[in-house]
Amino acid sequence: MLKPIIVFDLDGTLVDTAPDLLTSLNHCLTLAGMTPAEPGELRGFVGMGGRVMIERAFAAQQRALSAEQLDTLQVSFLDHYGSHMPGESRPYPGALDAVARFASAGYDAAICTNKYEGMATSLIAALGLADRFSAICGGDSFAFRKPDPRHLTETIARAGGDPERAVMIGDSRTDIDTAKAAGIPVIAVDFGYTDRHVREFEPSRIISHFDELTVEMAEALLGETTR
């Protein structure tokens, strides 16, 4: 029998990676002779992987960016980010307790992120959390990625979870739209990296701390979807 499953986005949801993402982004911007980005700007850049983050940073400074330059900077970003992992990245307060809480209730856990799978897997391993998740699927794991709902449903399938008893946890419109398109309830955290409040995207529930993420909340949402 398939287990119920809780699926987490990674950056800005499960792990606060902002300090290291910003450092690696600014490494690339410095190489390009540009002004380093400020911490407050990061919310508008993240969500679709490092490549898009670089594109958005260039657009914010109204600088042209050729495909060749983007390719070069993306390699620099990945090299810098990977070589400094895990850096200052840490799970958000209460996140690991929440994962343990659901595991005790018989849930599997997985990660569905637009970060490259290798990077996501390396980060989770560097944090000593690899045994907590049945699957870690990144933006290059399949021929599609969030907000395509198949990224989420295939992550659930890879983890061996029950798609009819699945809940998504995310911090952005991308996560919320993905889950909605898949017909899966979604709980949004309001401390992530989106530049607009998650309430605007109408998730199923909103939490401000992982202590609020209870099995009872998940079960209530799953009950609503089966009515």
Write the layout of secondary structure elements.
Elements: E1 3-8, E2 15-16, H1 18-31, H2 50-60, H3 67-83, E3 90-91, H4 95-104, E4 108-112, H5 117-126, E5 135-137, H6 149-159, E6 161-170, H7 173-182, E7 186-189, E8 205-207, H8 215-225
Helix pairs in contact: 1-2, 1-3, 2-3, 6-7
Protein model, in words:
This protein is of the alpha/beta class and 227 residues long. The protein has 2 domains: 3-16 and 90-225, HAD superfamily/HAD-like (Rossmann fold), CATH 3.40.50; 18-83, Putative phosphatase, domain 2 (DNA polymerase, domain 1), CATH 1.10.150.240. Helix content is 41%, strand content 15%. The relative contact order is 0.17.
Using brief descriptors, characterize the structure shown:
227 residues, Rossmann fold, DNA polymerase, domain 1, 2 domains, 6-stranded parallel sheet, two-stranded antiparallel sheet, 8 strands, globular
What is the second-level CATH architecture of the largest domain?
A: 3-Layer(aba) Sandwich
Beta-strand percentage? 15-25%
* CATH C-level of the largest domain: Alpha Beta
Class derived from helix and strand content? alpha/beta
Mean pLDDT across all amino acids: 94
Please give a quick description of this structure:
The chain has helices at 18-31, 50-60, 67-83, 95-104, 117-126, 149-159, 173-182, 215-225, and strands at residues 3-8, 15-16, 90-91, 108-112, 135-137, 161-170, 186-189, 205-207. Strand 6 (161-170), helix 7 and strand 7 (186-189) form a beta-alpha-beta unit.
